[in-house]
Specification:
By secondary structure, the chain is mostly helical. It has eleven helices and no strands. It has one domain: Urease accessory protein UreF, CATH 1.10.4190.10.
């Protein structure tokens, strides 16, 4: 990877990217509240299960398809996978999360003027922009290789999950970094799996996670928006 592409990837995956990722736990806060996640081992189990059962089977494969669609300026494919992702958000919180973060990243990318008009029009033609669509657009505009962009998204997601555990279980900083380091082979495997799935193999069936999200919507005390 060229140095410029690597730096662009680091910027996109950075927790300082102003899209509000830090304010979401994606159901993890309820798992902590219910005692399902209570130490480093159970935190790793939760993250690994979600990574392989949800991220690698649906969110990452859709990002992979959106990266290809933006790269080839395939407007129907961009619209198809954008609509598919939004339709698959099965709780109010999950839907609001991806739309808010997608809007924020799309607005940031437009303000930074990182692409030509044709590519930007592909993004702006979408009635609603979820996070994977905005991320695929930004990665394409910044010429980040597809495999690197996919790994960057997965790492950014995992890092945010670890940070939730560090703050809310709570885990120590060393424990959090040990946990994040241990996820490297899992992230690599998830990335490879996401690239190999056919369209009819994509699946977002995760009833346990959906229930956690629904419970979070009415949870009395909470720090996160999902």
């Amino acid at each position: 990877m060229h140095t410029s592409a690597l730096l662009h990837l680091l910027q996109l995956a950075s927790p300082s990217l102003p899209i509000g990722a830090y304010s979401y736990s994606q159901g993890l806060e309820t798992a902590i509240e219910n005692g399902l996640v209570n130490d480093e081992t159970s935190a790793r189990d939760w993250i690994v299960d979600t990574l392989h059962q949800v991220m690698a089977r649906f969110e990452a494969p859709i990002l992979w398809r959106l990266l290809q669609a933006f790269a080839t300026r395939d407007a129907p494919a961009v619209a198809q996978w954008t609509e598919c992702f939004i339709a698959a958000r099965d709780t109010a919180e999950f839907r609001a999360e991806t739309i808010q973060m997608g809007y924020s990243l799309a607005r940031l990318a437009a303000d930074l003027k990182i692409s030509d008009d044709a590519l930007l029009n592909l993004l702006q033609d979408q009635p609603e922009v979820p996070l994977p669509t905005a991320l695929a657009y930004a990665a394409t505009a910044l010429e980040v290789p597809h495999q690197a962009a996919l790994l960057g998204m997965l790492f950014s997601w995992a890092e945010n999950q670890v940070l939730v555990c560090v703050k809310s279980v709570p885990l120590g900083q060393v424990s959090g970094q040990r946990l994040l380091l241990s996820l490297r082979p899992e992230l690599e495997a998830a990335s490879q799996h996401a690239q190999q799935l056919a369209d009819d193999e994509l699946c977002n069936w995760s009833p346990g996670l959906s229930l956690m999200s629904m419970q979070h919507e009415v949870q009395y005390s909470r720090l996160y928006r999902s």
